[in-house]
Queue: 3 jobs
Job 1
Amino acid sequence: MTTRLFGEPVQRREDPRLLTGQGRYLDDLGRDALAAAFVRSPHAHARIRDIDVAPALDVEGLVAIYTWEDLPERVGRPLPLLIPHPALTHGRTAHPLARDVVRHVGEPVVMVVAADRYAAEDACALIEVEYESLKPVVGLEEAVQGANLVHHDVPGNIGAHLVQEVPAADGRGAREAIETAPHTLAFRLDIERSASMPLEGRGVYARWDGRDLRVYSSTQTSTSVRMAVAAALGLPLPQVEVIAPDVGGGFGVKIVHPWPEEILVPWAAMRLGREVKWAEDRREHFISSAHERGQVQYVRVGFDDDGRLLGLEVTILHDHGAYTPYGIIVPIVTSTQLLGPYKVGAYRVEFSSVYTNTVQVTPYRGAGRPQGVFCMERTMDKIARYLGKDRTEVRAANFIQPEEFPYDQGMTFQDGRPLIYDSGDYPEMLRMVKELIGWDSFERAPGRGIGIGCYVEGTGVGPYEGGHVQITSDGRVHVSTGLTSQGQGHETVFAQIAATELGVPIERISVVTGDTRRFGYAVGTFASRAAVVSGNAIALACRKVREKALRIAADALEADPADLEIADGVVHVAGTPRASIPLSTVAVLANPLRYAFDEEAARATQFSGTAAPDRPPVAEGEEPGLEGRDYYSPIRSTFAAGMHAAVVETDPDTAEIRIVRYAVVHDCGKLINPMIVEGQIHGGVAQGVGGALYERMVYDQHGQLVNASFMDFLMPYATEVPRVETAHLETPSPLNPLGIKGAGEAGVIPVSAVIASAVEDAEGIPIDRMPISPSDLFHLRAGRRR
Amino acid sequence: MKPPPFDYHAPRDLGEALRTLAEVRGKVLAGGQSLIPMLNMRLAAPDHLVDINRVAGLDGLERSGDGVLVGATVRHADAERAEVHPLLTRALKLVAHPVIRNRGTVVGSLVHADPAAELPAVLAVLDGRVRLARWDGGVRVREVRARDFFTGPMESAVEPGELAVSAFFPALPPGGGSAFHEVARRHGDYALAGVCAVVTVDGGLVATARAACVGVGPVPVVVDVGEACAGRPPEDADWAGAAALVRDAAEPEDDIHASAAYRRHLVGVLAERALRDAAREGAARGA
Amino acid sequence: MEHEITLIVNGAARRVRVPARRLLSDCLRHDLGLTGTHVGCEHGVCGCCTVLLEGRPVRSCLTFAVTVDGAEITTVEGLAPADGRLSPVQRAFAECHGLQCGFCTPGFLCTVTALLAENPAPTEEEVLEGISGNLCRCTGYQNIVKAVHRAAELLAEEE
């Protein structure tokens, strides 16, 4: 059994339980818990006049009904603004239950607790809320006119406004560079709303024993939920534990916290002295969990005869919905990551982040990058078309070259740190993707087109993650890290890292994530950061444990630690396999005991003769136990990259769009598990295809989300997703010990850009708005004929 | 998303079912694939639900020279597998997804009368009929032809207290061919537009041609295009002209998935495809 | 009013009292404690709740428990043989990385088990059609399709 598992397509350790129905997702827990349900606003914008709960009081099984008035001051406060930013001058967050005014359909107004969810919904249906309707603000254009306001104290509905400028090498600004450029283009690009839409909704389950509170949440950050819950409920942190059980997908929406329910459910459990659980249903998810993507982007670009960018100016209108709990991360990411693998000369980007009476917007896989990449890649295609050049040639003319790393884009990234690319090889990547899709031999025909899209993704943002590794006297290795898992295979890849670092068979390694009982310090799972940040932290923790194991083993074997190796869980002297000691025994020796509970332990007791009588049993500077903890805090993000290409066919009669081929070249540094990385790419591309061709959140003028079901929000099935052909390039990151970069979001990022590029190629019509449906294409064709 | 409470009745025979319906005027539960989502979303809240899944004698699927009689509890999947009628089989493959078809019923789809659904169009283009029964001291039965059965979007001729016990799909005559073409956003979704066609070919010449559209009107839009193409060999008939007649008869509306103009255009495209394919099949069967 | 019903679940008769409106999905999960059957939309589109009813895949969220009184039901917990090994379909999903978060997986496993029982060597199109009623937000389906073909091979080997 090899223990060099880093880089191998190891089968997932999560799978046996998930394949047999033994997974434990939020709603699988707490079978006897009371159920919560919510009366949610049916209006996009209204003042609450009166709430009459009396009609619901006779519902069989009803336990409690709460409105904002019932909440203690601390619990009823506005939810925290998680990521403040100086440009977010008018940040606003919701109260856990609406106070006075509701600002989107779906905002929680009344909480009901009952014996089961059926009874809770019965009660919700009977509660009468009287509303005075206010004028809803829907759509970016309407919002920026400012005629009606989402928040009375936010003029013009502008929550944030930010201008960032990077001058050209000669010091000229973007506007000047564009005006003096040989060629200029200006255009508008639109991307509509979509959403993470994990198949498991959110959910919270809480138990209170009179002193300690345990909360299970289907979250992407258990440590931060813990701090938020402790703060809101006024509990000392050590008395609160938060566990993310198996989580049925996150994709961004579950990084937001605390959601109202994450405060209200534990509060109700404490107040009632009963276990309370809320499992979000699909309709709730559509109208009360976050959306993303909706942006309007105006582009002006100046370039030379070779298609080299001289200046780029982008003005972004970002629709952040009714509240800004997650700050302005999405437009910041768009503004910075728009640059992609290119040198743009002078750059000016300005965004306004705008309130509307719609569900709040927070990061969804890609987190603003799909919009930015759509912007830059459409720009590249338009330049190529204008100059009559091959689209890949224009891109190549603008690439950052391999010898130019680290490359400073001169901006501030979403982590507040400089936007400096660590490594990459974009020309090679382009060569690979062209070869994979057959770019140069592609036979263009009416209704058949090829497209390309390139991106760079800042991954593995800080501030830090930690890892704890413990080897117990049975020789098992217990790894824990605080960030959470939603299907990325962390139990497997972290075990691969530990197996490789420690020389222990993977079967003996178990990994726990997202459980504050096991690891209290963490940030969360987002920004393709888990492998980079927790992976490196675990590697560093393993190295500490390994060093300690070798020290103890060297003592026992009377050898020099430098001569020792670990293989298959046994420490031995290099070249002398018989001089060896298993890690299980090392673990025994690491923990001097007074009491024996089994034979192994007996070897560490005080009369067993294993300790030197002239030294304290636990030497100075040592701690008992064979365990180690370490943290990895990256100086800045690592920058993964990828290039996708696709061939599409469009039906001349029905305007249906079919993706015939889809190719991905991807560079996330060193691969820990290529099978899992490919799986991440497949899934990302499928979500990208959804965003490019199928998914949109459609609000009517009244602020009603008219397609709030899986019947009408068109997530692709197997029949809609193309087979993805992949190839990998590995340019290790110089920033971290393992040389890795993140891979989680990559697949989704350029898909809209790629499909637009291919449809434009097939049709000869500019494609400036995504997603595109057959009906949209039909009308674009009709417009061309006119 | 939990259904509201209701009184549940599970009659064992037709008489009991009809007496129950006469008494409580409840909603009929057959496959439940359309009704239960509406209950779960609390868009419907009937006081009584009459579950006919245990009623004996409603699961018959009888084929004769005249056509196919499909009982009220015959599942889509069973009718599909039995291959009792070429057009019905084609249409059934377009109904939602296989798992839904395992539970959903043919008659239930007709009674649901969704103008975007395939089966009403099939019944309409074939000029089939639905048998309705009610209790009036005994079992009273009436038959309603398709043209009278579909009365509006999600509305059929079934009166309160009545139960649709079967549907009859007339067989295609010798030389009769059929086709069903539709465009849906995703495989298995309700169609943006669809057209089924029946064309008969007699002695090498087109004799009759009818088409029915889904998704472009309050009820299935049936158009007889015989005049535009009868009397000519199938390969020679003016299918484009016939398709234009179908397109002009459609009454599409805008929705979030497609514009009315696009839907109308689609009807023309799909009608021509369906008519040509049906004629080709008719010619082959007539030969 | 509650109804006393008997469901033959994974081979064992289970008696349970349920209100008429109890969805089969909730009955399995909350009354019988078989939480492997997941609920993703409760309007019949996602397929997470798919179970086998008399061997055929159906949506348990679109079925009332009372309606199927007396019927045989197989859930994901009943797919593996009693010897503790995984079924060929389950093994193929693990081998081909056909699952990520695992939430949709029980529905896929039930659907695919029935598909291969009826059609032991499906074509690519038949596989796509067969799983076309199940949503997965993680995998992009590619490895699920691969797993179905692999399961067909494993089943053939076991014959």
Job 2
Amino acid sequence: MLKMNSISRIFRTDTIQTHALRDFNLNVTEGEFVAVTGPSGSGKSTFLNVAGLLDTFDGGSYELDGVNVKGLSDDELSHLRNEKIGFIFQSYNLIPDFNIFDNVDMPLRYRGFNAKERKRRIESALELVGLASRQKYLPSQLSGGQQQRIAIARALAGEPKILLADEPTGNLDSLMARQVMELLHSLNEQGSTIIMVTHDPDQARAIKRNVQVIDGQITDMSIYAPLTSAQTA
Amino acid sequence: MEMLIYYIKLSIHNIKRHTLFFTLMITTLALGIAVLLANLAILKVMSSDPIPQKSDKIFSVNMTTWPETKGDNSEPLHILRYRDAMHILKSDIPTYSLIHYESNVYTRAVESKSLSRFGATTRATTQAFFQLTNAPFEYGQSWENENAFEVVIGADLNQKLFGGINSVGKNIEIDNKLFRIVGVLKPWHLKPLFYHASERRAFNKTDDLFAPIEVALDNSWGIGARASSTEMYNASSETREKNVFYLQAFVQLDTQQQKTEFQNYLDSYSQSLKDAGEHPFDINNKLYNVNEWLTKNKVVDDKILAFALATLLFLAVCIFNASSLLLARYHSAKFETGLRRAIGASKKQIFLQGSIESIIIGTICAFFSIVIGWIFLKLSLSLFPYLTDIANFDMQLMIMGICIAIATSFISALYPLIRASNSNISSEIK
């Protein structure tokens, strides 16, 4: 599903070169749930940006669902992002004056689906996150947890190959965080491939595969026996 | 198509949620465009071709005949003596030839019970005037005899004297003499009045009354425009034999051959005058076609040209301001742009969406530009009162206004849009 070989990403200023990623290798297969952990500034977000085609890389090769992304045009990258990737952000990134329906509708618009198909997908995604009855609500009328679920619905509506989550529970209290994590686990059980960056070691331990990033390199790839829901609670 | 509708909806949504901002932007652009449109309305009238179907075939005749040697009089004159003018009429080279001078008379309908007379600007001319200028007849036709007491009147005078009815065959009185009306013109707004573009009369109304020149001279109708002479004269009837320069001549030359032959005809005449010792100058006769003649007479006012430049600069400042405003808006909306890019919008799509927004803004702007421009035009005409009845916002100008508004709106948005669509996605979203 996702194959990164010797990826490097260097940020340059006039005087300094920062190696955000170096010799970064990762393979994620379909249906996996991978937690990416590491201290601040270790390169987790850079990895997620490169993986999500939001940022370029300087060396190495990256294949997403069989497509070598190196050298693709902006149009092709945008198309790949839209079709194969679902993003879940820490700050939800919902457009505040669009209602829930229109927020979830956004990526589908760029995909070119007709109105009927879009409606079907939006309703189905909202149903999946348990918020089908809130289509006309504005984001500000929902709790943080609900807003993140809407963001997940937006990511799911396009039926992507992989979900990339950047600290999806970072802005939530523990109860809401647990609900969101349960939703992600449930999606994974239904077959979704998920890569999630997190600072929370408990959340990471609840995920079968952990990847630790330090100084732009993977230092540990542990396989845990995931904690049960009762244990995570 | 569905995407286009989506972009339009998004644009309207954006405009609604940032009403104050867009009001400011639209006002800025509309002011700049309005001033330009008002100026263009005046410029358009001033620079329009009054007779486009044959403006390149009608020529003002300028001749070297002035006899005085004092000062620099080598430039050919557009005003001619009677005998020079007659020499032009004698030629059968032009398709049509006319001579004319402007006069003013007072007249009344003979059948009217009122004795009050109406002032009428008068063109003493020759029969070919009507064919050469394509004067539009409502009733009747031109006179046939250059010595007949017959006149053609304009629509305004016909309205004043006869209430606008067909007055052909009716008599009017001028200086206690009876003149029979043989033709009535339709309302005729020749802009500019090419046959009398000199002496800043290019935007005068077309004349009220047209009469045979021989009759006008016989009756000593006054010369109401520039006249220069080297001899004293008491009345226009005395000008036939004297060095009085006041008649203007126009000819229609349909082919290059006609033009060459007529130029030679004029040059031989001037040379013969020189050989006879009537003037000392090199022969420098000129034939100006209508547009050349209007340009030579500076029909487009210098003030207007300077004002046009100033309005263009003002519009450039408005575009710059609008662009700065938009840059600030796109900066504040970079999260949304970044988000759209992250979830699959390409740079092209972001650019296209912004372009459509700018077109919608341009369309709104066009409406306000035309309204404000019309107000500016009315104010501007206080500077140019002679254009009051003719400078207006016609359909062509309004379409031009819409195009300018959309173009300026797009130009304003161009740089901010390029910046927005090329922004780094990962730095815009968290």
Job 3
Amino acid sequence: MEPPKERVKFIQTDLVLPYHYYAGDYKALYLRALKDKKILGSKCSATGKVFVPPLMSSPDAHAPCEEIVELPDKGIVTTFCVVNVPVYGRDIELPYVVASVALDGADVSIYGLVQECKAEDVEMGTRVQAVWKPDGERQGDHTDIKYFKPTGEPKAPLESFIHRL
Amino acid sequence: MSKLRNVAIVGFAQAPIVADDPHRTAPEMLYPVVKQALKNANVERKDIDYQCAGSSDYIDGRAFSFSQVMEVMGAWPPVQDSHVEMDAIWAAHLVWVKMQAEECDTAIIAGFGKVSEGSPMHVLNLQLDPFYHASLGLDHVSTSALQASAYMAKAGVDDAGLAEVAARNRAAGAKNPDTQLRQAVSAAELQKTPFVTSPLREGYLPPIGETATCLVLAAEGKAEKMCDKPVWIHGVDHRIELQTIGARDLTSSASTKLAAKNAFAMAGVKGVNDAQVVELGSTTPVEELILRDALGLSSGLGGKADGPVVNPSGSPLCANPLMNTGLLRLAEGFRQLSGRAGERAVSGAKRAVVHASAGHCLQQNIVWVLGTERRWA
Amino acid sequence: MSRAVAVVGVGQTHHASKQPDVNCAEMVRIAIDKALLDAGLSHEDIDAIVLGKAPDPLEGIMQPEQYLAGALGAHMKPIIRVHTAGSVGCTTALTAATHVASGLYGRVLTVAFEKQSEGNAMWALSPNYAFTPPMVAGAGGFFAPYCRAYIMRSGAPSHIGAVVAANARENAGRNEHAHLREPITVEDVLASPMLWDPIRFLETCPSSDGAIAIVMANEELAKKGPRKPAWLKAGATFTEPMYVPGRDQVSPLAGRTCAKHVYAKAGIKDPWNEIQVAEFYVPFSWYEPMWLENLGFAPLNEGWKVVDRGDQKFGRHLPVNPSGGVLNTNPIGASGMLRFGEAALQVMGRAGEHQVPGVKTALGHAYGGGAQYFSIAILSTEL
């Protein structure tokens, strides 16, 4: 190989680092249930607050959350943004809505896409429902919920969700 | 040395050290450990002033990895907090400095690292100079092997000598219920294990392992209420050297020597032989020999071991859960001096010297002196 | 704090999206040499080093303090490495201050840097974690919903974000080190593409290469220095978990607690009237009114009114980010230390063209994570 004629200004290193991540038993339970169109949470033994996906312990009370509860696949858009810029590793038609969705009965919200409506029709307080992948296609991962869609129900009042952003 | 604040270790807990825990994520491993450490120190989370964790994003394969454990530290309402991208023993040092500054009286220190999820061989290569060393594909075993060859040539130590050191640690590890490798193996058997990178054999290297740890520190006035036998910090110092493998003498550890000198002066001791227990963060037999030289201990090769008991825990050769390995050395000092070392207790131990290391070929080193009595009146 | 701590030297590189003429070691060295020169000191005078930076994957070097030990002048010295997300720069400076306050170290060098151009920042900052619901939106997308909630809750008019961005750029024009200095108008900002509605392109921070170094000393040594030092009156870091039911992500409790704590320590009862200049960590323009409230400079939901009146502009009641701030210069790990260092320079009366006249007390602030990690420092002309 010929030595470089120009001064070397940088070296290019393409790192390949193998990782295999454990879900942990709580997340594994949650992911497995998605396959059956079920959303699981865990309940804090001290406060009764419900976390979704289920946590082993509550960050606020520092207490175990061993009780697993099932949650409906309906909830409220607590807040959201409209994405107009391509995101690394994502292939979704622009613009799209990413929302914080507080499922009914949950005390923290999860992220999800909101589709089957115009971006400008999404509001803080819009009631939504999960749209699942069809039977046989669900793999037990987060993409089993394809997105959320508006239910057409009346908008939830601000005070019902402002503390569940 | 001017008078410093007396600070003590008052509690410790760890998860079992295992090759991999497929059931728990890093924060899930840490949660019960934090709860247990608080219980061991007879304290509620709300009575702790400060928390500091030690971990690495690359070990865990996620940026901001430490933010996951914020969920399990009992950090609500909001708490005073920090994190070092280092072995948690340096988090313990930072907390001790903070206590000297009278910025806190009680603190928890957490270590975690989900080592099994990644590949230490690949990851630790990234610690090296990206232009000259990392690009050669060196990893921690190959740099340790370079160091081992150099030391063996200089000191006239052979393969049997390495096996003897490793076997001694394995025998000690067999008595430590909290370590990973708990079977004694003879030097002869270890010498039959295959080379990983010559001159280092499989039997001379630590297993891959992971855990989560939590140590509780408290200043005088609070420490006594939290622990029946608080273990007091008498002195500590840490130093780093240049990384460049070719620019330093790999056969000795100048930074350990200086850190030890400063820690001994702070503790008011003449040298390492004033201690009954020494716990070293050596991950190969050669590192142990180099550290023995640096601290002024006899090598003990050929059955001539005298002076303090070295590595009663079995050393990192029996368990090397990255980012926790150092803190576990401090924990061994605490266990030995507070009557919590079970079968492996060194009888009559009143003072311990604890060492831990970071980087390739003992680049960065910390030395502590611990005692059963307060250092400063 | 048991012993007085002073800033005696500050040095920073220029900041740019790419610094291809230097490697990491050379870049930190430029900042360090400037800081030492500023303090009239050399490496022999330094007892310990505290390095801070954000995730290692930004440069692809694990625990770079080991590789950089030589460049940092750390050979045979103590060095520690802090990482507390976006707040890290300010937290690192406070960690160095703790070292001095302990009485164990007379002078401490603290350094923060980021050379984002060398790694893949999008990967490092917004990785697709296994088993965690994907956010599908990137860094701006994470904070945009909270800005929206702020707008909803406070009733702020939509031009406020653009006013902040244009003012920050005007300020950056007076800062020779700033990354983005070309003037922009409110109309330019409003006309720029909406990236993460409600956040527009010109309301977001850039990605920068840059470094800053600060020398701190104890009282005795600080008084020997060639310059008027900036005294650290108070500093603290507070953190909260992400998944706390009812957590206020718009005005996080950790930020409010941290501010209350440092004001009490510094004897400040009325920050709006007792502090003359503030450097907040504002990566997206809406965070300026949000932090005005969170840090107690304005009542809840009224931070935007300060911006609307222009009271936070250069030359007005409380200049915020006279350096141009994170919106115009963002070497992530260094951004928080730049806030601390700029506050110190204002107190020392050496901020150059962006010096605010008559500064007695200044505030430096940084935050990070999902608005969870807060770090605040109060610097003063008086011991």
